[in-house]
User: What shape does this take?
Amino acid sequence: MASSELRSIPALLARNIREFGHHPAYREKEYGIWQSWSWAETGAEIEAIALGFLDLGVSEGDHIAIIGRNRPHFYWSMVAAQMVGAVPVPVYQDSVAEDIAFVLDHCGASYAVVEDQEQVDKTIEVKDRLPGLKDVVYLDGKGLRKYDHAHLKSFADLQAEGRKKQSALEPELIRRRDGLDLDSTCVMLYTSGTTGRPKGVVLSNRNIIETSKASGNFDALTKDESILAYLPMAWVGDFIFAVGQAYWCGFCVCCPESETTMHDNLREIGPSYFFAPPRFFEENITTITIRMEDAGRFKRRLYANAMELARRIGPKILDGEDVSAWDRFKYRLGDMFVYGPLRNRSGMSNVRVAYTAGEAIGPELFEFWRSLGINLKQLYGQTEASVFITQQPDNEVRVDTVGVPSPGVELKIADTGEVFYRSPGVFVEYYKNAESTASTKDDEGWVATGDAGFIEEGSGHLRIIDRVKDVGKLSNGALFAPKYVENKLKFFANILEAVVHGDGRDECTAFINIDLTAVGNWAERNNIAYGSYQELAGHPKVLDTIQGHIEEVNKSLSTDEMLSGCQVHRFLILHKELDADDGEITRTRKVRRKIVAEKFADLIGALYDGSDKISTETEVTYEDGRKGSIKATLDVRSAKVFEIKTKALEAAE
Assistant: This one.
């Protein structure tokens, strides 16, 4: 099939079946066993689902919600929906019923394909608010035997009905499939909603296919790659990697047995192509740090010495720079005893290309993983761009930039410092939101990112400072960029989340969330008893530890020409973890700053009025959806601030 004929994801499927039909397309671990489907077998499964959709009454243009964890059946359902001219709408599986109701109502979903009883119950709970929802198809029928099945159908029955009526339904299926082109809608994905209600981003086949082709060529991806699909299917990153690039390149998508076994499954698969948000790498460093703290003196010393060498020369070796023969020999020894086992423990022994995005990654965190010999790179992207805006080429990987424009992408910087781009991946529209579409994308196709940055002269690399709306100034005129400081703080294993305040004020302050796993492990080693997150967070020794981390970051910031004014003067440890169910962070763990500022206004006041303690009460949402409240008295501490030693200040003096 000529490239010009590859006009849709179903067309790519047909090519993959024809050209490498026996090559593995999907793997899934279930009941402890890895199961595999070739491209030919995948094609048969998808066709049965598509025929089942036709039998169910799916019309062209219908929206089909997909709710569940990463499983081949849901990826197949998305392609089958496209095949019959419908629009797949993946929904975050951990969304509460209220959030699911918003998405299904907004897109006008006529059908839903869900995983199990939990997701069925959510749809039933909000069914009276979704008059357009006709039928729900479920994959796992456990617990559903006594439910009213008037509008419930099992996934197996859907496929069985489709196969049974193949001869009658196939002509219509062929007509719809062959009628797809590059301008047909491929998928609708909802934004994380950091500033309000999520928006439905409509992406066409052109957006996904052109972007997948360009980004695949950028890193020379082939059908021999394998990936682990573990990120939420409702997130654009998962869609472009596990559908767009997978179907363009023809590589294998592997699905873990469950969220809890993901790390074990990652080690078993050993993917060659890997993507993870910074939080994944933070969690792994936390695990490594805990294990080393529990190790004997010899192992701790071996690790410390090996990592000192790795940080000095590991990235240079990875980038092909000159390194002495003696250092190379020592690094090979380190690889045998430290770096290799760490890569294996993290499931990245076979990784050829790894990317991180979604949030800025801390420099220490980034350099740690590259020092181990992992080709970890940064990319900068958005849902509205079909992910890729910039990428880092091999041998041009730097911690302070997000790379050069991806193939086919143009960049420009507005007078305000905001980054704009246009490319074949630029979204079609925000669904039912012409006003937001017009304010984000102009008539020439330029899209406003909402991020502040600049393009370096000479290298052409893009540097992102922060979100435009978050970048500000302290009262003395110094630049305020909270995300940069927060990422430096989150490098420490004990810190799960940080929220820095200071725009328009005399100084910066911070909320801290401790990492319960890391700090809890420390408490156990030191025989410190605690009964809850709140109790541990308020322990004086925990406060001492966090204060030490903040002062270390302050020392580092004091030498930064641009951000030296962002040193944290005062801080407190929050009495609860920031939670998506409470609206404080998004499902992709981005802080909703406005909501946090409003919800904890009394705590911010205490950070700036000189208080040593503050009593507060906060509403929380429990796992079952019930509301409650927690009360706490928090300590407010001051941190050491270092004298600013920058070239600009010295010149002014």
Summary: The longest strand covers residues 447-455. The domain at 472-652 is CATH 3.30.300.30 (GMP Synthetase; Chain A, domain 3).
